[in-house]
Amino acid sequence: MYYGSFNEFGRCTHFLVGLDENKNLPVRFFPNPAKNEVFIQKDSQERISTLTLINQTGQKVIYFTDDIEKIDVSMLPRGVYIIMVTTQNQEIIRRKVLIE
After folding, report:
1. Confidence of residue 15 (pLDDT cuts 50, 70, 90)
2. 53 and 61 in contact (C-beta within 8 Å)?
3. How many domains is the chain built from?
4. Is residue 44 a part of any domain in this protein?
């Protein structure tokens, strides 16, 4: 996400360097960074329709179509990944996760 303006040379002068991870979302992921597993905490009435784990090159490395509570990431290389969840209410939640 971009925040700020461009200077006279066309370069960005302000950057957004973090995400608001403290938002009250119906689905949360921990620990971050993760080593072997990423746990999924959901509000009591929330269900996951799909979960996708995407690597830095945009490839889907894990995909689930059921309501799960944890992801085994022990076989994945170290790096930054995106977890994308679609809830039963069609809300899309994206979060970065670091795998060590």
Report:
1. very low
2. yes
3. 1
4. yes
Question: Rounded distance, CA 100 to CA 86, Å?
Answer: 25
Tell me which residue of 43, 52, 88, 48 sits closest to 68, measured CA to CA: 48
The CATH number linked to 61 is 2.60.40.1930
Residue 12 within a domain? no
What letters, b where the CB count within 10 A reaches 16 and e where it falls short, cover 8-46?
eeeeeeeeeeeeeeeeebbbbbeeeebeeebebebeeeb
pLDDT surpasses 50 at 20: no
Distances (CA, A) of 62 to 43, 76, 87: 23, 10, 17
Q: To which residue do tokens 């996951």 refer? A: 48
Domain with 38, as residue range(s), is: 27-99
Pairing of the two strands 60-64 and 48-54: antiparallel
